[in-house]
Specification:
heterodimer, A: about 300 residues, alpha/beta, 6-stranded mixed β-sheet, about 35% helix, B: mainly alpha
């Protein structure tokens, strides 16, 4: 069963289609990257998933049914616009928000201690959140999101305003959640983060899906059949290479389409070239995005 | 547990722990206890000395004012000449003196000399001198009883009758003026405080960006209802504390303070007060939560809320008019206009100048308004809660309501 099943949803604000006929599925145990520039419609799509706003058309099923109170309890959502109660302590905030997910206090207490420990926030548990730094607040919000052990976790720009150490820490936790079989949605305009974590992606631009599928498959699809090479010298001609482009530090070799990169490497070595780097060029998601948007025009 | 209940509990506990709420709630009991203490203290320590007999000198140039020199608390001392009287005044033998001129009977002129700085002679002194003059003028002409009546022509008692000619209830100053005003003030404070807190609570969660996190667990309806009921419950506790305080105060004070011996607050009036408090609170709660969901910050909502709070304080400004003309057109209009209805109805109920059908109609009107505003507020809540930018134009709001 798909954890999330979105079928042709659309949403307009003031006559502008913010989300246009978007469909996708998410299964358990995967990190699903939702990527696109600012204003692409990511947050609106997520808000429709959460039933915070209703789609104009289309259908959304979470864990096999339209979202309801019971399914809400199994979802953890870290919105992009997020905060905390300033006047109450970290523990009180956690207990209250967990109780709204139908979690019993004793359970919430144990798991909160565990998670606070994990992100090194245990010493701050009795502080009022207004006394915490911005980054610490982000960690608490992250804990709020996963405290009730949800089966579906939605992170909207989860690493915004986090330092590299904490970013790494949260990435590790997200990978753990994946290995526990949770379905995870990561939405961000930072394409490199998606590239690092996601199994499958949904790329949207101006409300429309421009790419959807497994990250590896998409990347190989957009491979432009070239290799990057750094070496002491390049021979006049190399088997299967149709052309080359000098990038300064390295050279890009364009293959003729019939020859595999293995053959090229073999030929280079047989010609006595000292190879420092030989890499099959895969475009970054960023480059793919730019290419896709260009093609669409 | 039911999520609405969880939100209710959370809001209720939050407000109960807030300093403003605690101070405000305890202010009235503390003030009354303090006032009572001061009164008792003054009673204990202040033993009024037997009033010292005051001496007032006079010069009688007619020669017919020589009797009744011993009026209450005052002794009139006859001097043969003005100089003698002046000397006596200067050595403080007498407090003041006056001269009865030869033409007094035709002119009525009395000239009074005193060393005290005063804007006008005190009522007491006036009365004493007048009594002295009247006694001397009439004693030979009429009976002592008539003299007495001439001095005090009447002890006035007025009684208001109702339409059926029966003696109307609530004749004393307390139940006809003080109690209604106490209700007005208590109502205004508690209704505005509770619904104002609700307004803050809505905008606060918008400002601190909690709203979307909450909405991932609960629906807008659960959130709104939980908040309205939670803060309403705290308001009800506040009002209950005040009413109980008043009731106890009335009980204690009427037994110990002679001036307040008639003090009592009928339980039926308190029961109506609770009903109108709840209705009034719900109405303003709906209005304020609607405003709270439209505006991005509490600050920007203040201007908008004035539009609604201003009419709501009208009964306060017109309270004297309502008290004196409880069945007049304005009083009726204010009773049936939803924003002014709770307070006006309470003023009229406490003076017992309202017909049962008027109570019924006002309740129907408020309940209808509550239902309509709640519906609108819930729509606005859902649509505008996540709009953090600027306040939407009225046209936009109307359009959303129509679409919703």
């Amino acid at each position: 069963m798909n954890t999330v099943e979105v079928t042709q949803i659309s949403k307009s604000f003031k006559g502008v289609k913010v989300v246009d006929n978007v469909s996708f599925n998410i299964v358990q145990g995967e990190i699903f990257g939702m990527v696109g520039p600012n204003g692409a419609g990511k947050t609106t799509t997520i808000r429709m998933l959460m039933d915070i706003i209703k789609p104009d058309s289309g259908e959304i099923k979470i864990m096999g049914e339209p979202i309801n109170e019971a399914t809400k309890d199994r979802i953890g959502y870290l919105p992009e616009e997020r905060g905390l109660y300033k006047k109450i302590t970290v523990t009180e905030s956690l207990f209250y928000l967990a109780s709204l997910k139908n979690m019993r206090r004793s359970q919430a207490g144990d798991r909160a201690t565990q998670l606070l420990e994990r992100v090194n926030m245990l010493p701050h548990k009795d502080k009022k959140t207004e006394e915490l730094s911005h980054g610490m607040g982000q960690l608490i919000q992250f804990i709020v999101t996963i405290l009730h052990d949800p089966d579906l976790v939605i992170f909207d720009e989860p690493f915004a305003a986090l330092d590299p150490v904490n970013t790494q820490l949260l990435k590790d936790i997200i990978r753990e959640l994946k290995s526990q079989g949770k379905a995870i949605i990561m939405s961000t305009h930072m394409m490199n983060q998606i590239e690092e974590l996601s199994d499958r992606i949904l790329m949207i631009n101006k409300g429309r899906v421009v790419l959807y599928g497994s990250l590896g498959e998409i990347k190989s699809r957009y491979r432009n059949n070239s290799v990057f090479i750094e070496c002491d010298h390049l021979p006049e001609s190399i088997a299967g290479v149709a052309g080359s482009k000098n990038h300064g530090k390295y050279v890009e070799l364009f293959l003729d389409g019939q020859t595999s990169s293995q053959v090229v490497l073999k030929d280079l070595i047989s010609k006595g070239v000292m190879v420092d780097r030989f890499e099959i060029s895969t475009p970054s998601l960023n480059e793919i995005f730019i290419q896709v948007v260009k093609e669409a025009r | 547990m039911n999520k609405t209940l969880l939100i209710l509990k959370h809001e209720f506990r939050k407000i109960l722990r807030s300093k403003t709420f605690i101070i405000l709630t305890l202010a009235l009991p503390l003030l009354l206890i303090l006032g009572f203490g001061v009164y008792k203290g003054v009673q204990e320590w202040h033993h009024p000395a037997a009033p010292e007999e005051v001496k007032i000198g006079y010069v009688d140039e007619i020669g017919m004012f020589d009797e009744y020199t011993n009026q209450s608390d005052v002794l009139f001392v006859l001097y043969q000449s003005e100089d003698a009287a002046k000397q006596a005044l200067l050595v403080k033998e007498i407090k003041e003196y006056f001269i009865i001129p030869p033409d007094y009977l035709s002119s009525g002129l009395i000239t009074r000399y005193t060393m005290a700085r005063e804007a006008a002679p005190s009522e007491k002194t006036r009365g004493q001198i007048a009594d002295f003059l009247i006694s001397n003028l009439l004693s030979d002409e009429v009976s002592p009883q008539i003299v007495e009546r001439a001095k005090t022509p009447m002890l006035l008692a007025s009684i208001r009758l109702d339409e059926s000619g029966e003696i109307a209830s609530g004749q004393d100053v307390f139940s006809s003026y003080v109690l209604p005003m106490v209700f007005v003030v208590i109502f205004m404070i508690s209704i505005f405080f509770s619904s104002g807190t609700l307004f803050q609570s809505v905008t606060e969660e918008k400002e601190n960006r909690m709203i979307e996190i909450l909405l991932s667990s609960v629906s807008t309806r659960q959130l709104l209802v939980g908040k309205v009921l939670g803060l309403g419950a705290s308001g009800l506790i506040q009002v209950a504390v005040w009413f109980i305080t008043l009731e106890i105060f009335a009980e204690v004070a009427s037994g110990t303070i002679p001036a307040l011996s008639d003090l009592s607050i009928p339980v039926s009036v308190l029961a109506w007060a609770v009903v109108y408090f709840i209705l009034g609170y719900l109405l303003f709660a709906a209005i304020f939560s609607g405003i709270g969901s439209i505006v991005p910050t509490a600050k920007e909502g203040q201007g908008l809320s004035v539009i609604f709070t201003l009419p709501a304080v009208l009964p306060y400004y017109f309270s004297y008019f309502i008290l004196t003309n409880p069945t007049g057109a304005l009083s009726r209009a204010l009773t049936f206009f939803p924003l002014t209805s709770p307070i006006t109805a309470m003023i009229r109920i406490s003076t017992k100048a309202i017909a049962p059908w008027e109570i019924a109609l006002s309740i129907v009107i408020i309940v209808t308004s509550v239902v309509v505003t709640m519906w609108v507020a819930a729509k606005l809540f859902r649509v505008f809660l996540l709009m953090y930018g600027k306040r939407p134009a009225l046209r936009e709001i109307v359009r959303y309501l129509r679409e919703a």
